[in-house]
Amino acid sequence: MSERGVYFFFLLLLFPLQSFAKPICPIGEHWVASHVRRTYVRDDGNRVRAAQVKGHCRKNPRGYEKWHQNLSNNRPKIWGYKQEESKKWSVDEIERLHEALSVLPDVFLNLANVKIYRMHKSQFPGNPATSNNKDITLYDLAFQRKQSLAQIVAHELSHVLYRKLSEKEKSSFRQASGWIEHPEFKGALTTEKNKKFIQPDSRLSVDEDFSNHLEHFLFKNKSLKETSPKAYLWIWDKYGLGFKIKLGVKK
Ligand SMILES: [Zn+2]
């Protein structure tokens, strides 16, 4: 051992390497660094109180193995909203997001290559999240609202799901939800006169209407059944029995 080596050896004795690394958790768990937890309402309706959380190993929620690699502190490569600024995920928010994802149906959790970003504020007032291609951005509002984070994420993932539908499926959804060819402008779409809109922004596009439909199917099932019965059946037929919020399911 050289003189330098001896010096390094003694340094190691004084400061073991593990003290610099993050603790290793058993398989199926992940390390949650100490952080301040803000109060929020969980999807099962339970209120989680604000607390100073000490670093600990936490059991991986359903879907964790896939999603933890898909969170990014950067900016999406293509993002048209120039004024929107990226920010870093906090430990508190990461844990909340995983909790929210864990209650969503498999069809969302199995979506490939979706990245989830964190930004300060949307260009559109009151907007908690945006999706573009396979990129989803969550803004501060997504973590401050009383509305469930799982609902916000389900809506954005529904946009990704819509883009993956075949033309035939898109056309059959349009039919079921009251969208028709515009009588005067070739190639443009309009809605049937008696169509009921589940949300005001459903008027914007079939894509928006589709995401609102899936969001309502999962979170306000009864109201969708009454407002848009044909599309309700379409969703039932396409996504089947497993398409529901999974509360109390560990894996
Ligand atoms: Zn939307």
Give the fraction of residues assigned to helices: 25-40%
What's the main sheet like? 4 strands, mixed
Q: Name the helix and strand elements from N-terminus to C-terminus, one letter apiece.
A: HEEEEEEHEHHEEEHHHEEHHH
Question: Total number of helical segments?
Answer: 10
Rounded to the nearest angstrom, the distance between the terminal CA atoms is 51 Å
What is the topology, as strand order, of the major beta sheet? 7-8-10-9
Structure summary, number of beta strands: 12
Question: Could you say which overall geometry the principal axes of the C-alpha atoms support?
Answer: globular
Q: Which cofactors or ions or other ligands sit in this model?
A: zinc ion
Q: Approximately what portion of the residues adopt beta-strand conformation?
A: 15-25%
Radius of gyration: 22 Å
Uncertain stretches of 5 or more adjacent residues: none
Instruction: Assign the structural class, choosing from mainly alpha, mainly beta, alpha/beta, alpha+beta, or little secondary structure.
Output: alpha+beta
Mean pLDDT: 90
List the helices and strands and how they pair.
Blueprint: H1 3-14, E1 29-32, E2 35-37, E3 40-41, E4 47-48, E5 51-53, E6 56-59, H2 64-67, E7 71-72, H3 91-101, H4 106-109, E8 115-118, E9 129-132, E10 135-138, H5 140-144, H6 149-163, H7 167-177, E11 179-181, E12 189-191, H8 206-219, H9 221-227, H10 229-239
Parallel strand pairs: 7-8, 8-10
Antiparallel strand pairs: 1-6, 2-5, 3-4, 9-10, 11-12
The chain binds zinc ion.
Zinc ion is lined by residues 155, 159, 208, 211.
